[in-house]
Fold this protein.
Amino acid sequence: MAIFSLTAPVLAIETSCDETACAILSPQGEVLAETVHTQSGHAALGGVVPEIAARAHLALLPEIVSETLTKSGLSLREIGAFAACTGPGLIGGLIVGSNYAKGLAIAMDRPFIAVNHIEAHALTARLPGVSAEQIKFPYLLLLVSGGHCQCVAVRGVGNYEKLGGTIDDAAGEAFDKVAKMLGLGWPGGPALEKLAQEGRADAVALPRPLLGRAGCDFSFSGLKTAVARQIASYGMEALPRAFAADIAASFQRCVCDVMTDRARHALAMLPDALSIVVAGGVAANGTIRTALEKVASEAGIAFVAPPLRLCTDNATMVGWAAIETIEAYAAAGRPLDDGIPTAPRPRWPLTEVSPPGATESGAAVLSEVSV
Ligand code: KG4
Ligand code: ZN
């Protein structure tokens, strides 16, 4: 296959968890249309049920794609490439989304680009318009969501290093579990943040796991257990609201302290970082955002928090990662179909996304179709 260059818009699909999303971007990264549908059925069950999510993606996707095409004013014939997140994530959803995009790619005789979900979060900060000037490599990504919690050195397209990550729960997962213990709904992060405004952050003594420890790993399970113990002392009695608010505020402060400490350590591991970028649902938390902003300003570097709709799961980030990948392959003089299967992968570490500049086979992109 010849070197591919994108001259028409890219259509991207994201289905790795409970968002069914589609976006269409111009070759320069202008968002022409985007649709994100967050599946609602999971809240009552207290979390995302993989089988239900996969079936919902299957039912929703045709409508979501056609709605997005209508909003863009384009027809399928005018799309230059199709992209989908093929991992990491829930395998059922990944199979649905990637096969849908592959089917369209075959039918329209266009390339299919397999996008790593974490890579898509990592590159979103470079989407035109997110910051006044496109941020440059290298930068530190803090990905903090319900499913992910990691510090990543982003050195270039396809060039990532995980500096540290959680050894048990993800940060959002900890927020959700503590919120559940406090009788708040799911997802718990936003409700817990709201309740915390009524409480005192120094009221309840809770641990700050791994604080000050070398490296930038995270752990939240001890903190969660400490909260459970505090709550257990009330037995079957309803928790007084003031106490629940104190717990929420104290828990949030602990997470915040841990996160800023880990971010400082991660920066020490990537001393040439030009900015700190946050992504994931937990980046919506005002206290955490402000604290991380302070870490960046102390280090004299920029802080980039993409707008919330781009921090949480969406297909625009998948489309943008596909554009960056296509450009990087073209710049390296490599064709897109370099021989690695595009099968969906529930686990797909960033270290297995190979740089487009590599000379050996290892591209995570191709137009060949495999399931
Ligand atoms: O990125 P996201 O929408 O989905 C994935 O997990 O992939 O993140 C959702 C997570 C949930 O755990 C939710 O509780 C958390 O982000 N979250 C928050 C806030 N808003 C959402 N956590 C703390 N404070 C918030 N304001
Ligand atoms: Zn995500």
Summary: The chain has two domains: 10-124+311-366, 139-305. Residues 117, 121, 145, 313 surround zinc ion (ligand 2) (CB under 6 Å). The radius of gyration is 21 Å.
